[in-house]
Specification:
- By secondary structure, the chain is an alpha+beta fold.
- 34% of the residues lie in helices and 24% in strands.
- The protein has 24 helices and 35 strands.
- A hairpin with a 6-residue loop joins strand 4 (90-94) and strand 5.
- The longest helix is centred in the N-terminal third of the chain and has 34 residues, at 2-35.
- It is elongated and about 140 Å long.
- The termini are far apart.
- The model is unreliable at 217-221, 617-633, 654-673 and 734-774 (pLDDT under 50).
């Protein structure tokens, strides 16, 4: 018996120990948590219910400058939107009688019953997402649950918010003016969280790829998820975000603990772009018209200010599946392709500047087979004029002409073949432009090769690749006197309407070639428009210089349908360039495929409108001399004396043979004009006889085309000239003058053998008639 008691006692002891040990562990753990980890768990509790939340700064605006009046036009801005909550629960409410806080409805039950129906009607009318009855059922259900913060609506605009201040329950009168004419309303019983910002564009899709769009795949509200100008200057535009403590009232619902910000918000700065809204609209309209009429797959146009490198307009359109055109990518900066014949000017500049060729060199045209090549080199179209000068070959855009020079200079000797790429890269020297846009930009390529076929094609724009903006930058350097400017999209930073930082133009290269080479290249580009592939641009009052290009897409793939890429790049006005421009049209599906036929008209439409709306081209009259008419023309002194005699005016006597005439106070006046043989005079407005006589006496070689009077000259007035230099005069084609001018032109070759006085006598009768017309 005693043995059984001992066993029972032993078993009870074991059971007691098994029960007491877990109990002691739990007690010890509680004591440990209350002492050693008290701070840790307090911190975790606060993190779960109280957290620091970001208060977003307002992103700065992006502006354009209106060139006509200098006003700032808004291209991109950020508008504020709120999420609104209604307090339908109970909380501490101060009694108006006892002056003590009591627990009661935040919105008194009487006010709720009386006004909730009116509120629901107004909310339904404003947002239109629910009927008034649906709103009322929703609020009543939340009221029964005593929910403190009930969502009214998300993304409420500032205009809607101001209207809601007058709604029942949501708003109340805050102040009434003394004359009782002005009443101020505020929100009451409504929780408006800190505003969110949405990027909006007042001009819609205008220049969107230049301004920038939110990058796909990034979260909404991201401050650095933009490309274009918006992305590049995000550090300026973003501002400084603030932070404050908020507490959680429901899952995913947080309200401020107080109104104090731990870090204050600083709104972003504003960016002033170089874009001109009017010119951007013109560029997009002209490009879209060309793409649509020719059923092309894509196209781009860029307009650059010559002296500063400021981009005034840039448009890019790609055909969509539904047949419409949209700006889905920035072709001008991000797409690299073979330029075609516009690259010939790079090759020509290299050959001329290194003294390897001259514009007077004779080259073949048409079709030619070169040794060690697979394919013949052919000229596009019907360019079969036999042997011509290198200058004329460039005017006609002859592939054979420029290839012949490259073959003789680089391909015959195998050791010189790698040098062609190196020499070309000296003149197309820049790598990526790294413009102030957040966009992918590929570097230009001139491929390494020693194959004769590739080297010959390289000379006229194949086996190379560059973006349209990179090519335009090269031609803009030609227009800018050899100084290559970096393209620029932003000119200044502003804060509260005040300019705080300006961006000066950036020079990439001070001199792209010698002045002599540059003059020859400029002359070639003018002649391309006057007599070559750009003839559709020649009849302008201001003059255009440039080069057309036609590249074959898929020329080396027999299984691919041959497509074309047409382009024209140049500048205007030709003598005093203010703008440069490039137009590229890819894969047209209609008959027109050449740059001079397809891209040049877009260039012309844009240049005409730019000149027509630009103030720089027409100098304003000086207020002190507003009664004086400008100088009309130069003329022969004897002819002018004869004119005065026929008009019954006193005949002045001149020591000089040439005079310039003008009117003052309605009366004809004149002054003697002395010419310096090293300075080019202005012969625009003269008859071809007088112009040739004057210029040949100065030692120039004169050629001309057309009939009538001189309307343009290849060497600008005021430029330095030398004996033996060639000058080309473009004449009007006035039908009334044509007959008489043909007779005059027959006598030009004998002008130096016959004295000017004798010719004036021979033409006296005709001069009398012309004098009466004047």
């Amino acid at each position: 018996m005693s043995t059984n008691n001992k066993n029972r006692a032993r078993a009870l002891s074991v059971i007691f120990l098994l029960m007491i040990i877990p109990f002691l562990f739990v007690v010890g753990k509680v004591i440990y948590l209350e002492t050693s980890e008290n701070e840790f768990w307090d911190k975790r509790a606060k993190e779960w219910n109280i957290s620091k939340h970001k208060v977003s700064a307002r992103r700065g605006n992006i502006y354009a400058i209106d060139s006509e009046n200098g006003e700032q036009l808004l291209l991109a801005t950020s508008l504020r939107y709120w999420d609104l909550y209604l307090d339908l629960g109970k909380g501490k409410v101060r009694s108006p009688f006892s002056k003590k806080d009591t627990i009661d409805w935040i919105i008194p039950q009487e006010d709720y019953n009386k006004k909730i129906g009116q509120l629901c009607v107004k909310l339904s009318s404003m947002f239109g997402d629910k009927s008034a009855n649906e709103y009322k059922r929703f609020f009543d259900a939340q009221r029964r649950k005593q929910n403190r913060y009930v969502l009214i609506h998300k993304d409420v605009s500032e205009q809607q918010l101001n209207q809601m201040k007058r709604f029942p329950i949501l708003g109340r009168i805050s102040r009434i003016s003394k004359d009782k004419k002005d009443t101020t309303f505020v929100l009451s019983g409504v929780m408006a969280k800190e505003p969110k910002y949405k990027r909006v564009y007042p001009y819609g899709e205008l220049a969107r790829r230049t301004i920038g769009i939110q990058v796909k795949g990034e979260t909404a509200g991201c401050d650095t998820c933009y490309d274009g100008i918006d992305g590049y200057y995000t550090n300026k535009l973003s501002g400084v975000h603030g932070y404050r403590w908020e507490r959680r009232i429901n899952p995913n619902q947080w309200v401020p603990v107080d109104n104090e910000l731990e870090i204050k918000v600083e709104d972003g700065l504003d960016v002033i772009s170089t874009i001109d809204v009017s010119l951007q609209e013109l560029a997009e309209t002209a490009l879209l018209r060309c793409l649509d009429s020719n059923q092309a797959e894509s196209g781009t146009v860029i307009l650059m200010e010559t002296h500063s490198g400021h981009i005034k307009a840039m448009a890019n359109f790609t055909k969509q599946k539904d047949g419409t055109y949209r700006e889905t990518e920035n072709i001008a900066i991000s797409n690299r392709f073979e330029p075609g014949s516009t690259f010939k000017i790079v090759t020509a500049m290299m050959l001329l500047d290194k003294g390897l060729a001259d514009t007077s060199d004779i080259v073949p045209t048409g079709v030619k087979h070169f040794p060690n090549t697979i394919k013949d080199i052919k000229d596009v179209g019907k360019v079969r004029h036999g042997d011509v000068s290198f200058r004329r070959a460039l005017e006609m855009s002859s592939n054979v002409g420029i290839s012949s020079l490259i073959y003789d200079l680089y391909c015959k000797d195998r050791t010189k073949r790698p040098m062609l790429r190196e020499d070309l890269m000296q003149y197309f020297s820049y790598d990526k432009l790294d413009c102030d846009l957040t966009l992918h930009e590929p570097a230009p390529i001139i491929r390494k090769t020693v194959q004769v076929d590739d080297l010959l094609r390289m000379s006229f724009g194949y086996v190379t690749a560059m973006t349209p903006l990179q090519m335009l930058t090269f031609y803009n350097g030609i227009a800018n006197g050899g100084k290559v400017m970096k393209p620029q999209f932003v000119q200044s930073i502003a804060q509260d309407g005040r300019i705080i930082q300006n961006f000066d133009p950036v020079v990439l290269k001070q001199q792209m070639c010698s002045p002599q080479t540059l003059a020859k290249i400029q002359d070639v580009l003018k002649r391309v428009v006057l007599y070559g592939t750009g003839r559709k641009l020649r009849n302008t009052s201001y003059g255009i210089a440039g080069k057309s290009g036609t590249a074959e897409i898929g020329y080396d793939n027999q299984n691919q349908v041959l497509r074309h890429r047409a382009s024209f790049v140049g500048y205007f006005p030709a003598d005093e360039p203010q703008y440069s421009c490039i137009v590229v049209i890819s894969k047209p599906h209609k008959a027109l495929t050449h740059g001079g036929d397809l891209a040049a008209p877009v260039f012309r439409e844009l240049s005409d409108r730019v000149i027509g709306t630009s103030k720089f081209y027409y100098p304003q009259k000086n207020q002190n001399t507003e009664n004086f008419a400008p100088i009309m023309t130069y003329g022969n002194a004897e002819n002018y004396s004869l004119l005065c005699k026929n008009l019954g005016l006193s005949v002045p006597k001149f020591q000089s043979q040439w005079i310039k005439t003008y009117s003052m106070n309605g009366k004809p006046h004149c002054s003697e004009q002395q010419f310096t043989k090293s300075i080019m005079p202005n012969v625009v407005g003269l008859t071809i006889r007088d112009a040739v006589y004057m210029l040949e006496n100065m030692g120039l070689k004169v050629s001309f085309a057309g009939y009538g009077k001189v309307i343009s000259q290849s060497i600008a007035k005021g430029k330095y000239i030398h004996s033996g230099q060639e000058v080309f005069l473009n004449l009007s084609s006035n039908k009334e003058e044509k007959k008489d001018t043909i007779k005059e032109n027959k006598n030009i070759n004998t002008s130096n053998a016959t004295s000017h006085k004798e010719k004036a006598t021979i033409k006296q009768d005709k001069n009398k008639t012309n004098s009466k017309k004047k």
